[in-house]
């Protein structure tokens, strides 16, 4: 009796499964019929053969101008390419632009201190009038220097960690490519050798531009200090002397950019990176 009951249950399950398959097949036929109708509509409107050709992007990597999705995908790819390249260039060029701007302001202050702060020996009324103008110019220079210093502080807060990551990752990448160049012979694969060499030059140039402008900024600080100390101040007005001494003390703190709040952005860092590349390649060759 139990065996008969089990057999009946199995037969019932098989019959129910077969009914479910028939229902699925009928629904599949309905969907195919709907797809055929939609294909005919698309063919009349757009002049294509089937919807499957329009959705070829989801099936393979082949996509031609005959497909409906070709032009939207092409537009999206062009926008993504433009955005990626612009963001990359902006990230690499923005620090250089800011440092060039700061150097320009620093050099402008130095020129004012050298050319427009000359001492007037004759004690006349015009001399004291000019002294007042010099004091106003000196106050403006101090204010400008303070604004530049504030800009440097904000820039360090924003870009100090970014420059640390950029220099670190670029150094690691260049060292790895140097290892590859030191292992493989350029005669075995000249094309790959040239690609790796050009890649190293590109990465090194990216770091070099930032470090070069950092060195220019340090030189601008030195020129400003020399311009301040070159002023013949002993016989100048007392107020002018006080302002000048205050400016001298203020310029003791250099306006420079930091990498990770530790290292200065200058060519010394670039030289150390170059030594790291040569050292890595030499160790691999000796090994």
UniProtKB/TrEMBL annotation:
Membrane topology: Multi-pass membrane protein
Highest taxon of source: Eukaryota
Signal peptide residues on this chain, from the entry's feature table: none
InterPro entries linked to this entry: 7tm6_olfct_rcpt
UniProt subcellular location: Cell membrane
One cellular-component annotation, GO: plasma membrane
GO terms (BP aspect): signal transduction
Broad class of the protein's primary localization: membrane
Molecular functions (GO terms): odorant binding; olfactory receptor activity
Transmembrane segments: none
Keywords: Cell membrane, Membrane, Olfaction, Receptor, Sensory transduction, Transducer, Transmembrane, Transmembrane helix
PANTHER family membership: ODORANT RECEPTOR, ODORANT RECEPTOR 19A-RELATED
Protein name, as recorded: CSON008476 protein
Organism annotation: Culicoides sonorensis
């Amino acid at each position: 009796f139990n065996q008969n009951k089990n057999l009946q249950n199995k037969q019932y399950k098989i019959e129910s499964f077969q009914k479910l398959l028939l229902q699925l097949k009928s629904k599949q036929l309905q969907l195919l019929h709907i797809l055929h109708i939609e294909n005919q509509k698309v063919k009349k409107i757009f002049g294509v053969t089937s919807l499957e050709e329009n959705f070829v992007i989801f099936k393979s990597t082949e996509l031609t101008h005959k497909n409906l999705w070709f032009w939207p995908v092409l537009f999206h790819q062009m926008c993504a390419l433009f955005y990626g390249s612009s963001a990359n260039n902006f990230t690499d060029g923005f620090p250089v632009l800011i440092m060039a701007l700061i150097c320009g302001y620093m050099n402008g202050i130095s020129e004012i201190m050298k050319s427009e702060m000359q001492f007037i020996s004759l004690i006349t009324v015009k001399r004291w009038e000019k002294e007042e103008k010099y004091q106003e110019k000196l106050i403006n220079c101090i204010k400008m220097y303070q604004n530049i210093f504030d800009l440097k502080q904000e820039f360090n807060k924003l870009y100090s960690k970014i420059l640390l990551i950029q220099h670190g990752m670029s150094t690691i990448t260049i060292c790895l490519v140097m290892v590859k160049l030191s292992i493989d012979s350029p005669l075995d694969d000249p094309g790959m050798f040239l690609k790796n060499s050009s890649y190293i030059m590109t990465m090194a140039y990216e770091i070099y531009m930032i470090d070069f402008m950092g060195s220019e900024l340090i030189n601008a600080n030195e020129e400003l200090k020399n311009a301040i100390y070159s002023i013949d101040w002993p016989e100048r007005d007392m107020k002018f002397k006080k302002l000048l001494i205050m400016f001298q003390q203020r310029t003791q703190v250099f306006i420079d950019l930091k990498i990770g709040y530790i290292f200065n952005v200058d060519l010394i860092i670039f030289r150390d990176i170059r030594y790291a590349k040569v050292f890595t390649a030499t160790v691999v060759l000796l090994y």
